[in-house]
Amino acid sequence: MAVALDAMGGDHGPAVLVEGAVEAAREFGTAIVLVGEEEVLAAELDRQGGASLPIEIHHASQVVGMDESPAESLRRKKDSTIKVAFDLVKRGDASAVVSAGNSGATLATALVTLGRFSGVRPAIATVMPTLKEPAVMIDVGANVDCKPHHLLQFGVMGAVFSSEFLGIENPAVGILSIGEEDSKGNQQVKRAHDLFHGTSLNFVGNVEGREVFRGDVNVIVCDGFVGNICLKLSEGLAESILLMLKSELSSSPMASMGYLLAKGAFRRFKKRVDYSEYGGAPLLGTKGVAIICHGRSGAKAIKNAVRVASGLAASDLLGKLKEALGRYEDLYK
Amino acid sequence: MAVALDAMGGDHGPAVLVEGAVEAAREFGTAIVLVGEEEVLAAELDRQGGASLPIEIHHASQVVGMDESPAESLRRKKDSTIKVAFDLVKRGDASAVVSAGNSGATLATALVTLGRFSGVRPAIATVMPTLKEPAVMIDVGANVDCKPHHLLQFGVMGAVFSSEFLGIENPAVGILSIGEEDSKGNQQVKRAHDLFHGTSLNFVGNVEGREVFRGDVNVIVCDGFVGNICLKLSEGLAESILLMLKSELSSSPMASMGYLLAKGAFRRFKKRVDYSEYGGAPLLGTKGVAIICHGRSGAKAIKNAVRVASGLAASDLLGKLKEALGRYEDLYK
To answer: Is the minimum CB–CB distance between A71 and chain B shorter than 8 Å?
Structure first.
């Protein structure tokens, strides 16, 4: 079944989104439904030589602005690309949604249209590069004020995702906190420890900020406020470091020459720290697959997000999430 | 007046701490009191050729272990290096304390021995490198569960420190949060906005994680849980990036040659992202100057922390903090 792509959202507009779709269809053979202004998308698809690929267009007349209120957009824009994309999944006409549009609206629309597992707070998971296997951080922005039992749900969902998507057996799950001992952390974290100890998860206790990128912990649990700050801080720092390095490397002829010689190494290095390799961030806990992408996603990130969405929809992710969450219902209901 | 250095704390032991002291005394002429085992320190000082420098030794018979409970250490170890160092400041025999020992114990001992400004929660400030001027992040670990009015105090203190220490006029103060608009963030942050708007601080609203390293905001306010995670995450990421880069640069003869040519550029780059250039993190809000260093501080970090401590003690930091905090007393009392 096709992946529904919100083809109007994001910072770069339809050209880049269609480009990502065309690349995904071409490279992976993924079937895609572009959702948005029919004429615009048809012209774009044609221009990019995608006519013969398994890409369809589904018209939607409205677009939710990047700064628009999610609640308002849900009330007023019944024919928005985001709403129409989720309706396609709801009706069984698409397998998953990918959107680089207004992420608050994507989240709200997913909750309303797809629904959530009973008693569960859906959360956004993200895959982070580390020195070893990539790690999953959850939640990175869906829930800003959380209770300890929500952290438990995030851990359960993150572990399922880590196994299903990254193939990690019995992933190590830790809570992002400010010391190694169970006694370190804020009230929320300390109470969550007791809940986690009551599960059969491979719970390793607290994870400090320093350890995130070492890769020894596979699932890093935090509330959406902390997680979103960490995600964006990491992106900003990685970018700043590359900028500083670049400015130093162009500061003298000898350094520039060295850079030229080592260019292949730099390219591999950039690929290792590049978030867009992993596509977008899946929303876990709703009764359907949705991938939330950065507004500034380029074609490569969209291509990878479409691939991930298609793979997750074809896997038994939803069934496994439901089962795992069900196992610990008495801890959070 | 001399700076009191806890000469037994930290991961590396007295040799490295004395080395930092010797370098500070030699380079900056700073007077220092080494606090700890008299015989050990005298031998170390002699071995390092520091006998003729303005360095004295003050005996203390106990050391607080890195994992020891701060409360317990305060109760039981009346002659610990940390306690004795703060007693020296309290009595007017030293101007400031520098410790790379147990930071919880350093914090607790500072509160008990020096006291705090009335109604104020002391906080740890740290200086972070950015693409422009260094920024101040506060609190990075003293207070894990905060009320909105504590964030206000952190902002007031951070602004004074930014002006006094970094020489930034009318520093821009922002709250670390997950969106630009005032309406974005958790409950704690949203309520803090109202308080900040009632001050004459140069308050710029929310700062997202991505913006921290751009350097447009001079003071970044957060609770100690979020701040400590961000600080350690940043350090861990910077380290991981350097490791990944190193491994790529040694992966082929051509890349290695390029690295050799660009070595000077790499050295300048490492210096730019190196936290130890700024020494330790000052504790603000107590009635005395204390600098908390990383347990793993090397001699350079200690040297710089001693320099910073001496400079802050000689400045009117405490007077200015008291005055600024007093100005907004009705907002937090």
So the answer is: no
> Which pTM value belongs to this model?
0.91
Counting beta carbons within 10 angstroms of the beta carbon of residue B166, is it exposed (0 to 12), middle (13 to 18) or buried (19 or more)?
Answer: middle
Contact by Cβ (8 Å): A16, A38: no
Kindly report, residue by residue over B139-154, the tens digit of the pLDDT. 999 999 999 999 999 9
- Which one of A213, A228, A244 has the shortest CB-CB distance to B178? A228
pLDDT tens digit sequence for A295-307: 889 999 999 999 9
Residues B144, A178: C-beta atoms closer than 8 Å:
yes
Give the burial string for A46-63 (b: 16+ CB within 10 Å, else e). eebebeebebbbbebebb
* Count of alpha carbons within 13 angstroms of residue B14, beta-carbon side: 20
Q: Which residues of chain B have a CB within 8 Å of the CB of A141?
A: 178
- Tell which of A231, A261, A294 to mutate to test the B interface (max B CBs under 10 Å): A261
So what's the ipTM on this one?
0.89
- Answer positive or negative: Cα dihedral of A14, A18, A19, A24: positive
H or E element in which residue B97 lies = strand B96-99
DSSP-assigned beta bridge partners for residue A203:
A173
- DSSP letter, residue A328: T
Q: Domains in chain B, start-ordered, CATH in brackets?
A: 1-120+285-316 (3.40.718.10), 121-279 (3.40.718.10)
Residue B79's CB: how many other CB atoms inside 10 A?
12
Q: What are the angstrom distances between the C-alpha of B323 and each of B117, B157, B166, B311?
A: 10, 10, 19, 19
Q: How many CB pairs under 8 A join A and B?
A: 194
Cβ neighbour number for residue A172 with a 10 Å cutoff = 19
Q: Choose from A184, A241, A250 for mutation: most chain B CBs within 10 A.
A: A241
A28 touches chain B (CB under 8 A): no
